Inverse folding.
């Protein structure tokens, strides 16, 4: 009897973990986001099915190269629930990433999604870093047609080390994966983190911290 109880509890725990491991599941054919609603829910309220139109499921833009004339030399074109209301509750989204030569999609995390990326043009040096205490770098140079997986919520990056433009497409396991760019979050927060905290964390002097923060403000 005790063994059966342990087994039942284990199965319940697994079921609960599965239930909260991703975006909310559909209970109908679709739940197109009603962005005019003022009701706050985890996601978006469903638009009335009679008001749903084909445009709620369409995004046009991945054929257009992103503008990479910025400090990082990269541009992300997102197709998530903000651009495609029909993705609400679907648990998936996409992005196009363009890279100029030496362009970087800097170290960042997606707090709500695993990412799978494929290179369409050029080559990219990509990788992610495992959690503490190991902090192991898992990285590889990808060429056209290669696919790489970035586990959910781990710091990762993509860098075009070549002399030609590069393009990649990414799929993410959330309608709204979110993004936290490490350097921007740490050195560009508003209000700013104190010099004392950053100087101790990065083992540098306060003048160095001030200089870095100036790059993000």
């Amino acid at each position: 009897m005790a063994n059966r109880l342990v087994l039942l509890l284990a199965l319940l725990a697994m079921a609960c973990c599965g239930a909260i491991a991703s975006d909310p599941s559909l209970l109908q054919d679709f739940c197109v986001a009603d962005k005019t609603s003022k009701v706050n829910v985890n996601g978006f309220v469903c638009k009335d099915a009679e008001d749903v139109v084909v445009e709620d499921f369409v995004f046009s833009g991945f054929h257009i190269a992103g503008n990479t004339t910025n400090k990082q030399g990269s541009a992300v074109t997102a197709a998530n629930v903000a651009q495609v209301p029909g993705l609400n509750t679907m648990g998936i989204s996409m992005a196009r990433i363009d890279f100029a030569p030496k362009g970087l999609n800097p170290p960042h995390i997606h707090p709500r999604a695993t990412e799978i990326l494929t290179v369409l043009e050029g080559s990219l040096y990509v990788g992610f870093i495992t959690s503490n205490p190991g902090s192991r770098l898992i990285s590889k140079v990808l060429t056209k047609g290669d696919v790489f997986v970035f586990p959910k919520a781990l710091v990762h990056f993509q860098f075009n080390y070549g002399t030609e433009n590069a393009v990649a497409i990414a799929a993410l396991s959330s309608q709204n994966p979110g993004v936290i760019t490490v350097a921007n979050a740490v050195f560009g927060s508003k209000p700013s983190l104190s010099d004392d905290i950053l100087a101790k964390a990065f083992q540098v002097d306060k003048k160095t911290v001030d200089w870095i923060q100036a790059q993000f403000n």
The chain has a mean pLDDT of 91. The chain is about 20% helix and 25% strand. The two ends are 63 Å apart (CA to CA).
